[in-house]
Amino acid sequence: MKPVLIGIAGGSNSGKTLIARRIYEHFEATHSVVIINEDDYYKDQSFLTYEERCKTNYDHPFAFDQNLLQQQLKDLLAGKEIAKPVYDFTIHNRSQKVEIVEPADVVIFEGLFALENEKLRKLESIKIFVDTDADVRVVRRIKRDLVERGRTLESVMNQYLETVKPMHDEFVEPSKRYADIIIPQGGKNEVALDLLITKISSILGQKML
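Above: the chain's sequence. Below: its structure in token form.
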């Protein structure tokens, strides 16, 4: 059996990454699961100044290098290693580093638009949408951007109102209809996590037969 791709979508700070990490940690010792984060595929903007990069709408599908993303996911599913780009949020651009990712039996792809793009959906065997209340997501985003990304409160709120919320309503929320599984409460939903881990264990068990 070829590797399985699991897509995890949801709003900004809904808990996508936490769910992916908890699944990965459960199977870490088996080296059978890898995580691909959509954020690392933001387009290279080295030709722009920092000030110009700050004005980019990072919450629109066009902000991502879809060709590279889709090709590298296909490579992983074909059993090939990839040199994944690494994004640096402090400079609003790709870093000079790349990460070598080895193929695995289960590839978890998580990001805002994991279910929005039809070509990506066709690659995904399991499609998940993390459904978390907007108030919870915006509070989490403020905390994250202030502490981890060196942003100001004003810049975080402006970005949320100008691009994050409108793009969520236009692109992310509608993609929920494509989900096989909808998870309320994100990574704190233990029942949903247990079910996912059981399903993945079953997939891995079949691969060993």
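The radius of gyration is 17 Å.
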